[in-house]
Amino acid sequence: MTEAVSESIHQSLISDFSEVRKATIELFRPLRVEDAVVQSDAFGSPANWHLAHVTWFFHKILEKYGSSQMLEDDAKKVGVSLSYLNSYYQRYGSILPKTERGKFPRPTVEQTLRYRSLIDTAVPAFLSQAITLTDEIRYDITLGIQHEMQHQELMIYDFQNYFQRFLDSEDNYKPVVARDPPIAQVNREKPTGTVRVPGGIYELGFSGTDFCYDNELPEHKVYLQPFKIDIAPVTNGDFIRFVEAGGYQDYKYWLSDGWDLAQEQQWKAPLYWEWKDDKWVKKDFRGLREIDLDEPVVNVSYYEADAYAHWAGKRLPTEPEWEKAASWNEEIQRKTLYPWGDQPPTVEHANLLESHIWRPARVGSYPKGKSHYGCHQMIGDAWEWTSSEYVLYPGFHSKFSEYTDKWAINQKVLRGGCFATPSMQIRNSYRNYFKPHERILFAGFRCVEDDPSRGLEE
Amino acid sequence: MTEAVSESIHQSLISDFSEVRKATIELFRPLRVEDAVVQSDAFGSPANWHLAHVTWFFHKILEKYGSSQMLEDDAKKVGVSLSYLNSYYQRYGSILPKTERGKFPRPTVEQTLRYRSLIDTAVPAFLSQAITLTDEIRYDITLGIQHEMQHQELMIYDFQNYFQRFLDSEDNYKPVVARDPPIAQVNREKPTGTVRVPGGIYELGFSGTDFCYDNELPEHKVYLQPFKIDIAPVTNGDFIRFVEAGGYQDYKYWLSDGWDLAQEQQWKAPLYWEWKDDKWVKKDFRGLREIDLDEPVVNVSYYEADAYAHWAGKRLPTEPEWEKAASWNEEIQRKTLYPWGDQPPTVEHANLLESHIWRPARVGSYPKGKSHYGCHQMIGDAWEWTSSEYVLYPGFHSKFSEYTDKWAINQKVLRGGCFATPSMQIRNSYRNYFKPHERILFAGFRCVEDDPSRGLEE
Amino acid sequence: MTEAVSESIHQSLISDFSEVRKATIELFRPLRVEDAVVQSDAFGSPANWHLAHVTWFFHKILEKYGSSQMLEDDAKKVGVSLSYLNSYYQRYGSILPKTERGKFPRPTVEQTLRYRSLIDTAVPAFLSQAITLTDEIRYDITLGIQHEMQHQELMIYDFQNYFQRFLDSEDNYKPVVARDPPIAQVNREKPTGTVRVPGGIYELGFSGTDFCYDNELPEHKVYLQPFKIDIAPVTNGDFIRFVEAGGYQDYKYWLSDGWDLAQEQQWKAPLYWEWKDDKWVKKDFRGLREIDLDEPVVNVSYYEADAYAHWAGKRLPTEPEWEKAASWNEEIQRKTLYPWGDQPPTVEHANLLESHIWRPARVGSYPKGKSHYGCHQMIGDAWEWTSSEYVLYPGFHSKFSEYTDKWAINQKVLRGGCFATPSMQIRNSYRNYFKPHERILFAGFRCVEDDPSRGLEE
Amino acid sequence: MTEAVSESIHQSLISDFSEVRKATIELFRPLRVEDAVVQSDAFGSPANWHLAHVTWFFHKILEKYGSSQMLEDDAKKVGVSLSYLNSYYQRYGSILPKTERGKFPRPTVEQTLRYRSLIDTAVPAFLSQAITLTDEIRYDITLGIQHEMQHQELMIYDFQNYFQRFLDSEDNYKPVVARDPPIAQVNREKPTGTVRVPGGIYELGFSGTDFCYDNELPEHKVYLQPFKIDIAPVTNGDFIRFVEAGGYQDYKYWLSDGWDLAQEQQWKAPLYWEWKDDKWVKKDFRGLREIDLDEPVVNVSYYEADAYAHWAGKRLPTEPEWEKAASWNEEIQRKTLYPWGDQPPTVEHANLLESHIWRPARVGSYPKGKSHYGCHQMIGDAWEWTSSEYVLYPGFHSKFSEYTDKWAINQKVLRGGCFATPSMQIRNSYRNYFKPHERILFAGFRCVEDDPSRGLEE
After folding, report:
1. pTM to 2 decimals?
2. Over pLDDT 90: what percentage of chain C?
3. Which of A150, A222, C358, D218 could join C422 in a cystine, given CB atoms 3.0 to 4.6 angstroms apart?
4. Contact A38/B109, CB-based, under 8 Å?
């Protein structure tokens, strides 16, 4: 690597770091202190906790490289006790149970912000001083950046969950979360129908050269049967037909565990939906408003997605099916990083991306963003549930233990990315995962069908 | 009533109101916003909630007298939605479940303080304008004052519960709760032994002319057997003997429900005690410190108090036994309002009271405060569990429905008042009540024995 | 005591023992083995467990007097391991949690019956051999007899709870529980209104010379205010008016704990009631049948009784109020053992009693059974909730520790006895007790009112 | 099909039916009625319920073919209400919650046996009358037979769970469950080490012509990476090394969900193990005995299996990896139905099988039973956890809805079959599935490793 190249990598890493840190603060700044420390749901975390946790994550990276001494002295001055920042990382000592995060508001918001600014200075300083920027350092810092973006998205789920409840008690309430809060988009083309994807051997996983998570690797062969996949994700309008056909009342569409849960919690529609004055309404960052039939449905659990698919006589795609439909280009006989090709997302291709790294969603231009096989909106509208359990790929090697390994159980893979996902987190091979009962994330789905009529093209 | 007298009552009511409001703010002011909105235990409430709730209570009183109109307009300007202030008062509409108070920090601290200052102005204005200060108005306003003092004490329980947990993670942490946080006192005389109290008819209840709660009335006859009662409350030193004798491990001392709970929650000593470096230590407003053997034991449930009494071959007093031992003066053949007589408490008599209304506890001078029968520390050190279920007195008439009636089940009466109880709340006839499993309040106990050797003195 | 008297006491004790043992078997015999081992509710126990437990109780008595050696050898032959018979008597070693009784059917029914016949022989043999029948022996054996009768009644509660559920799935199902299963009775006089009872000192507790439980002693003075008490227990017809007035939907009648529970469990009427074809029906030993408006209401919790009383503008009686209304005879200036006088109950006086000891209920003749003050049906129709917590009387001395002491918490006293109570268990001073939420026992209530208009007659 | 062939199929179906029915009764007969109706664990069911349920299953098949009329009249005479036999088949009407099965012992044991004998007659009669034995009829009857064998195995799990608890209270207790109760076997060769299995395309699923479950179909291609697999399942001796190395105390080996559960339930070793007198002992059908180090470990959850694999630096096999290691024969270039070839199991090949259909396990002769790649004990010793979630194969078509579809969530596939699995249930392609926390089944595991050193042989 020439010095110039190395210099440029240095600079670009520092600039990514700064940009992502700034974006977090932009999300956080509109909050009152009261709202920053509440844990509104056992699934979520207080915003102040997110802020401190992502900062501590960089702290640990500096510690790994022996560069945290001064930092720790400073942290003490700020009054930050590091012991309660470990979240689920058990190897760093006794941890506060996740459900207790709302009962222990330390560091305080002010302490968090001061601690944060220590790191804001220390990381670029560390990078500037590093004579050689090893691959490991680059990877670790990039991981810290990606990790922080994950938490940006989780914060948005928490905001949606938390603020919507105030619409009951505060007239005309508008949660001031960000200048342009992320909301779902309508695909103006309103495509319908399915496309055919041939079967055969497919290489699953990340094939690029830039950063990816360890769970996207290694790329490896799988064998697919031919299938037909929906051109577009299921919309609110589609889903209302399921609701109105009595889908939530008929066990025959449901997985047993899903049915039990739906009965116990009395699900009647997606999370946040309410039946009011003879129509379905929903509370989101736009306030209380009627359901837009043309937006992709979100805030449905895996169970609801699967029940819909049964009702429709279809099924959910497996993880490799989804990826092949998004990635494979028959013409050039290779995968692309994004449905539309290898260029990183811009506002032309999908819906979120004015900034280099991250911006809450707005207008996209879907047709240009479609995949080789013709699927629209595979990235950036809604996470899409797949029927594959989240397991590690054969040959997997953990780059950061306790970060990847321990969660590979009882979760389903989601692919794509939603309107609240930072653009740098978006790529065809990205593997998100949640328990099948979770509804708080902006997840929807599209269906597939077997395609026995078609031979294997290989 | 002459005009002058009425004028003076006006003034004294306004002055009491102002003083109690100031005291609440003194308790509240040292808090960070983060700490003000946390509900640290399902039993407790956020401090910010306490603050808004006691204010809303006055609001409702003004509403009753048609004087809340302007107030409500103002409240709206402040952004306060009244609907979530109702706490348990179901008659005012749908209520937020108590356990959710920590998840709904509205009004914000700032809104609460502004709302509070509206009431701070409105109540004196209402009293000044009232041409005739009816008994009902006086009672209601006084009730509001007393109610606020109750919540002051509950806030202190919450502070103890909440802040002690930081001692694990923050070195040298001193919770800044109030200038002089309330703590237990040592009786320098260290009295021991019992005194005899004769049986016969006794008139139970409030016999004074000033304010009392409706549940202290009507005064009515009960019949007592002769008994012997401990001169002093059980101390930490006494209680440690029970602990060391295996009292927490031997079911034979315990009520069945108590034993089950103690096993389930693995009780080994009073709440907040820990065994550390071969001694019992405790976290309180003084930090982490060794147990003082001469302080009255506190933070024990009824079950623990009862188990101790069984172990000691004694029993807990009934409510009338406790009151007679505190109140009856054989020489003057009548009850007194306080153990020491009818003068309101001052720093000479008990331990909390430099101010007219309320001050957190400091030095007392116990011997002067003892009762006619010779009992020390009956008021102002620790609430004392009695064996009487909290039921309403025969002939009871509710002055404020939903405030008194609905709680008369599954609770035990406590008498006396603790080092965190405002002085105006203290009198012999005051009836506090909690479920027998609660340990968060500063409750201890003293024991009694039957006295068959002695005839009835009547 | 002369030899003849002693002889006669011997004989009568043996004869009581035999009769009660026979009655238990009569209750048990119609059961299938399957039904004998099911624990239908966490509150109840399998019938087979009851059978073995009451037998073990006699076993322990013989052990106390050194007469169990041969018995234990025999028990071993029968294959009975005594360790799982201890039920709640913790002092006899580790116990099976009550809720597990249905998962551990040992001894088997056959073993139980064989074990039982060993005791059937051993107890009379022991009594015959005893040279002097000490008071302690008499008391202990009588306690065993009374204890077995308590369990007979509990078995009937369990049968009601268990068998009624089959009415859903088996047409024309008639549970064959006993030849004449106990059912509620109608008072043909249909008395209404209240009677006045004067206040003053009253001696509460058992004043007879025969057996009573230790918790009925010592007799001691209490002081009562004058009151008015309902002549008859609240009937189904009365209670339906409360139901139809929306009593279960309006929190204002309810104790807070009761309201929470009623909401959680969706109570709409007494236990076992159902709304079917536009009327209230109930399943009991007679099958599915329409509610008889003139029977006393039963299977209501304390909470429901208290809510009714609030709705009716009345209250529940205290324990001494109930007892005085049942016991005190102004003419002879003393208490009687039963409402009607001192003669033990026969079929003329109440409703259950053809046999000397026990029979399930049938026709009574109420007017003759009324108390001096004119109250009907105070004994033998329904247990009546009182507002008094179950605490031990002042001066109480336990005759059988772990049997009496440990339950004196969180329970309300019931007085009277129901149509399933063996006649020997019935007397004015008998203290039954249950948690306020229990609905499985045949408990109803009558109301009282304060009577300020009347002076104390003393 | 010629008449003779058809005749022979008739006869063989009837004979299989009779044999499996007889085997169930042999399992059931030693039970006392008391033991037959207990539901010892929420996971399990009463034996009497199993008996009635498998019978009802045939009843429904006859109903499908219009041959149940007489049967239903007869059932009524026997007193059997069919409504409570539906278990989880929601489509047949309201169902008794599984956890309540122990509280509703209907039909009684006697009714069950009479109902059973009605079916024992009706099914052969139906088959004899059927002019043409359609494939559908054959499939359905065979399904009923297989279904009954599944429940035989579940009954054995229940027996183990239920009877072992009596070893605490009954000296020298030997549960009389069957003449030769199933127990684990030792492989006398004690093989260790791994074998290599090449990667490439593999056809997963059932390739035979006889009966298989719908979830074993369709056979379809998958792609495997090369791997090394343990020759033998992990033994008790292996597992004790994990236990003694602190495996249950170190979170780093565990999946997050597994760790949480293990902490909550305080797992320290496999289910049924106890540490006693300085060694590990276990209660099984042989009584209380020391752990045999050479038996395969069983009664471990998926979580424990996975933790062991992590500790050993390996991983669990996927479902296709397991199947290929058991089925593929490179020499003949096709799969075999069993590890040893296509002949059905006999006592020579595995351990359970003296009878044509079913026998509890005894001596096996493992070396002859090994697979082409050299794996021992793949069938008939212990179910083996795989890392694959139970999902339906691509192209799956349900033959019996509600039977297969609804369970494909939150479960892991197990392969192989244990010493309590009927021999007709055993084949390489059989897919068993349980939730990862279940420990009651006789499940163990073997480990695999990636084999990057080896190329793909294809």
Report:
1. 0.91
2. 56
3. C358
4. no
Return d(Cα D414, Cα A199) in angstroms, integer.
27
Distance CA D238, CA D234 (A): 6
**Closest Cα of chain B to C398: distance in Å?**
12
* A278-332 tens-digit pLDDT: 999 998 888 888 999 999 999 999 999 999 999 999 999 999 999 999 999 999 9
Predicted local distance difference test score (pLDDT) of residue A66: 85
Q: Which CATH architecture has domain C2-166?
A: Up-down Bundle (1.20)
Strands C383-389 vs C443-444: parallel, antiparallel or unpaired: parallel
| pLDDT value for C89 | 52
Smallest Cβ–Cβ distance between B169 and the set A33, A81, A108 belongs to A81
In whole angstroms, give the CA distance from residue D436 to residue D438.
6
Q: What is the 3-state secondary structure (H, E, C) of chain B?
A: CCHHHHHHHHHHHHHHHHHHHHHHHHHHCCCCHHHHCCCCCCCCCCHHHHHHHHHHHHHHHHHHCCCCHHHHHHHHHHCCCHHHHCCCCHHHCCCCCHHHHHHCCCCCHHHHHHHHHHHHHHHHHHHHHCCCCCHHHHHHHHHHHHHHHHHHHHHHHHHHHHHHHHHHCCCCCCCCCCCCCCCCCCCCCCCCCEEEECCEEEEECCCCCCCCCHHHCCCEEEEECCEEEECCCCEHHHHHHHHHCCCCCCHHHCCHHHHHHHHHCCCCCCCCEEEECCEEEEEECCEEEECCCCCECCCCCHHHHHHHHHHCCCECCCHHHHHHHHHEECCCCEECCECCECCCCCCCCCCCCCCCCCCCCCCCCHHHHCCCCCCCCCCCECEEEEEEECCCCCCCCCCCCCCCHHHCCCCEEEECCECCCCHHHCCCCCCEEECCCCCCCCEECCCEEECCCCCCCC
What are the tokens at A87? Answer: 């979240």
Closest CB from C225, C258, C409 relative to B394: C225
Q: What is the pLDDT of residue A181?
A: 66
Number of alpha carbons in the 13 Å side-chain half-sphere of residue A436: 29
- Mean pLDDT estimate for chain B: 85
pLDDT computed for residue C420 by the predictor: 86
Least confident of B140-149, B307-316, B393-402, C231-240: B393-402
With 70 as the cut, is the pLDDT of residue D94 above it? no
Chains D and A touch (3+ CB pairs under 8 A): yes
CATH 3.90.1580.10 positions along chain D are 183-236+268-450
* pLDDT band at residue B288 under the 50/70/90 scheme: confident
Instruction: Identify which of A35, A40, A105 has the shortest CB distance to residue B38.
Output: A105
Q: Is the pLDDT of residue B25 over 80?
A: yes
User: What mean pLDDT is predicted for residues A135-162?
Assistant: 92
Average pLDDT over residues C377-397: 93
Token couple for A447: 């269906």
Residues spanned by CATH 1.20.120 within chain B?
2-166
User: Is the pLDDT score of C425 beyond 50?
Assistant: yes
| Better-scored residue on pLDDT, A174 or A22 | A22
Domain D183-236+268-450 is of which CATH architecture? Alpha-Beta Complex (3.90)
| pLDDT grade for A400, boundaries at 50, 70 and 90 | low
| Residue in this structure with the two tokens 């012992």, named with its chain if needed | D105
Paired sense of beta strands C279-284 and C287-290, if any: antiparallel
CA distance B162 to chain A (A): 9
Terminal Cα-to-Cα distance of chain A (whole angstroms): 40
Instruction: Output the DSSP codes for D259-290.
Output: HHHHHHTT--SSTTEEEETTEEEEEETTEEEE
**Best residue of B34, B76, B92, B113 to probe chain A, by most A CBs closer than 10 Å:** B34
3-state class of A335 per DSSP? strand
Q: With an 8 Å Cβ cutoff, are A34 and B48 in contact? A: yes
